Amino acid sequence: MSETGPAERLQVSRSPLREAIARLAVAGMVSVVPQVGTRVEPIRLGEVEQARFVRESLEAAAFAVACEMPDRDVGNLRALLLEQERCHRITIRTDSSPPTRRCTGSSSPRATTTLPGR
Known about the structure:
Number of strands: 4
Largest sheet: 2 strands, antiparallel
Number of domains: 2
Helix content: 55-70%
Distance between the termini: 31 Å
């Protein structure tokens, strides 16, 4: 990917685009080859799993703190946790089918309405 196309589409100069690309490179999301262009790096499933674990741990800790609060109303939190558990049951297969066909086994209306073509 060159800088010119995205800069024109986003209607920004190349300087803020370069800054954004540099941040993405530091995060390991893209690699930049001078005089060639920028390439999106593959998703590292191990890092995704680590991020999911951290998020789940933080959310469980926040829920525990909320449960200890006086005058608490945790009904919304319980509903969100149930929704997350339903979404967690989505199975993603790694095959050559289109992305909208890869998610199976979900009883979550949100998952099926969020995915295009479902």
